[in-house]
Amino acid sequence: xxxxxxxxxxxxxxxxxxxxxxxxxxxxxxxxxxxxxxxxxxxxxxxxxxxxxxxxxxxxxxxxxxxxxxxxxxxxxxxxxxxxxxxxxxxxxxxxxxxxxxxxxxxxxxxxxxxxxxxxxxxxxxxxxxxxxxxxxxxxxxxxxxxxxxxxxxxxxxxxxxxxxxxxxxxxxxxxxxxxxxxxxxxxxxxxxxxxxx
Length: 198
What we know:
single chain; mainly alpha; two-stranded parallel ribbon; 5% strand; rod-shaped; disordered N terminus
């Protein structure tokens, strides 16, 4: 019998954050070449494009960290439940195999049919449980997306930024940007402050 592994929250949350940052970009803004400066001071109001490091955001945003712990626990519980059910079924099969030779043909046939149904029910339960967990993760992922996108929209408007880009190591369209354009720490601080209030 196949064992299905349940995905953890971290894999798809990263993609959601990248999408959230991209959603906050002003599509009508003209592309500007990022210039290197010697200073790493805070971004001035005249700068219209900034970026957020999504890797740092994932490790420092308290809401995401809480979700990750929550779904790791749920995944672990689901795996333990499926393992217990699978082991109970295997014991039942082993017990049948030990006594099969002493059973009448009709009893053997009925037992095999019952075990086959039970195996099918177990597989269906496993698929449904995995699907339910994935649906719950998707719903929470949508909330994460909305929280980040809503915050960034207000943040950009307040600061006068026309575009908020996202940077993720190994998965980014940004090849270089001056460190003074990195507003990650400020965004994380604001997101965590909003999350703490709620």
